[in-house]
Amino acid sequence: MAETPVYTDADPTLAELLQTHPQLTVDPTCGLMLEGVALNAIADSVGTPCWVLGAGTLRARMRRMHTAMRNAGLDVSIHYAVKANDHLAILTLIGQEGFGADIVSGGELARALKAGIPADRIVFSGVGKTDAELEQAISHGIGQINVESAEELEAISAIATKLGKQATITLRVNPDVDAKTHAKITTGLAANKFGIPFQDAAALYAHAFTLPGVRPVGFATHIGSQILTTTPYRAAYARVAELVRTVRAAGNAVSVVDCGGGLGICYRNETEGQPEALAGAIKAELGGLGVKLAIEPGRWPIGPAGVLLSSVILRKEQGMDVPFLVLDAAMNELLRPSMYDAWHGILPLAPQAFSQPVSLAHVVGPVCESGDTFARDRLLPPLARNARIALLDTGAYGAVMSSTYNSRPLAAEVLVEDGQWQVIRQRQSVEELWQDETVPSHLAKAT
Ligand SMILES: Cc1ncc(COP(=O)(O)O)c(C=O)c1O
Ligand SMILES: N[C@@H](CCCC[NH3+])C(=O)O
C-alpha cells in the first residue's frame, strides 16, 4: 500500500474508470453491466433513481479481507460496520458468510439480530448509547461493548448489574492520530468527540475491574474513514500496543484489541487501501501481544459493490460555457458530494456513449439547494433527456444516508447475484411519505 495516496490532476476517463472498477463492464448491445447484469434492464423495469448492489463484489471483498488477515497469521474477527449499508439482505449475507457486525444504535442491533447475526458476534460502538439501547444490548447478550467515556462505563455497569448480568467491554481509545482523511470523517484526533483520551485510558481500565457489571477485556480504536495509507493505522496501533503493555505491567489482563475500520477505496484515482497492507500494519504493531484481534470494515467491502442509477431530466444550457445536466437523483439520495465534496465516478448506461466525444457538464439534482451538485466540470459524452447514468461507488454511505427532502420518496434498491437481479426495496410511494403524519382534529375540521 502506497504511503501517500496517488492523485493526478485530471479526472479519470470513462475507460480508466472501467479499469479501476472491474465489477463494471460494457456490453456492445446492452451497455453498462454490473456483475454481468445489464443496468438498463433494471432501470427499464424498476425506473430511476435506483440503487443497485452487487452481492458478488461484496462477498469477494469480505473474503479477501478475511484471507488477508489469515495469511498474515492473525486471529482476526471481522465485524462488518452496519452503518455503511444496513439493508436486511446485506446483513443476512454478511451473517451467512460467517462475519459479525459492528453496530452504533438500537436500530442497527435489531436489524443485525433480525438478519440472523448471532448476538455474540455483535460489537456495539458509538459515542452516545442510551440507557434503553444498553439494556437492549446487554439483555441480548451482545458480544462486546466498546466504551467511549468514563460516564458510559459507569452507566453500563449499573445497567448490567440491574439486569443481573456482566457486560463484556473494551475501552475505545482516542489515540490522537491524524487519519489524513476528510475532517468530517476523522475520529481519532483529541479534538474529536470519539473515544477515551489516551492519557486517561490506563487508569479507567484499572477502574473498570472494580465495577461489578462489566468484564474488561481490552481496547478498541477507530481513527476515521476512507484511510488510504498504513501510516496512521500504524501510529494508532502503536499507541494501543503501548497501552496494553502499560496496563499489563500494572497487573490487568488484556485479551482483545479491536482495530476499527476505515480502509479507503478508489473513488477517483486513489490507490485503494489494501487489506493485506492493513493486516501487515496490525501484525507489526499488535501481532506480538497474544490478543484476539478484530476489524470493523464498512466502506471497503461494500462501497464499490453499489451504483446509483439515474436519468437525465434535462440539459440546461442557460447561455453558459458549461451546461447543467439535471438528474432525477439528488442530494436526498446520495448526500456524499454535498456533505463531503466527495467525487463519484459517472458512467453512461448506453453502449454507444462510450465511444462518443466528451464535453464538460455540471451534474446536478433537482432539489432546491445549490449544494445539490454531484459534479462540476465533468467530461461526459452527450446525454440528452432520459439518457441514463450510473453514479459509482455508492454501496457504502449511499442509501443509508438518504432522506425524503423535497417530498422525494426513497428510491428502490436492487440486489444482483449470479447474473440475476431482484428488488430488495420497493420504491416508496408518495402516500407513504405522510402515512405516519397526523393532522390535529381542530385543523382537519377547518379544511
Ligand atoms: C466505530 C466505527 N467502526 C467502523 C466504522 C466503519 O468505517 P469504514 O466504513 O470507513 O470502514 C466506523 C465509521 O467510520 C466507525 O465509527
Ligand atoms: N458517511 C461518511 C462515512 C462516515 C463513517 C462513519 N464513522 C461517508 O460517506 O464518507
Automatic annotation (TrEMBL):
Q: Which family does it belong to?
A: Belongs to the Orn/Lys/Arg decarboxylase class-II family. LysA subfamily.
* GO BP annotations, alphabetical order: lysine biosynthetic process via diaminopimelate
- Where does the record place the catalytic residues? 368
| Source species taxonomy | Bacteria, Pseudomonadati, Pseudomonadota, Alphaproteobacteria, Acetobacterales
- Enzyme Commission number: 4.1.1.20
Tell me the subunit arrangement.
Homodimer.
Q: What does this protein do?
A: Specifically catalyzes the decarboxylation of meso-diaminopimelate (meso-DAP) to L-lysine.
- Could you tell me what reaction this enzyme catalyses? meso-2,6-diaminopimelate + H(+) = L-lysine + CO2
Q: Would I find Amino-acid biosynthesis among this entry's keywords?
A: yes
Q: Which domain of life is it from?
A: Bacteria
According to its UniProt record, which cofactors does this protein need?
A: pyridoxal 5'-phosphate
Q: In which pathway does it act?
A: Amino-acid biosynthesis; L-lysine biosynthesis via DAP pathway; L-lysine from DL-2,6-diaminopimelate: step 1/1
Which positions does UniProt annotate for pyridoxal 5'-phosphate binding?
262, 296-299, 397
Q: Which residues does the record give as substrate binding sites? A: 299, 336, 340, 369, 397
Q: Which residues carry this modification: N6-(pyridoxal phosphate)lysine?
A: 83
One MF term in the entry's GO annotations: diaminopimelate decarboxylase activity
Under Gene3D superfamilies, the record lists:
Alanine racemase (3.20.20.10), Lyase, Ornithine Decarboxylase, Chain A, domain 1 (2.40.37.10)
Q: Is the Cell membrane keyword given for this protein?
A: no
Q: From which source organism is this entry? A: Acetobacter pasteurianus NBRC 3278
Q: Which UniProt keywords apply?
A: Amino-acid biosynthesis, Decarboxylase, Lyase, Lysine biosynthesis, Pyridoxal phosphate
Protein name (database record): Diaminopimelate decarboxylase
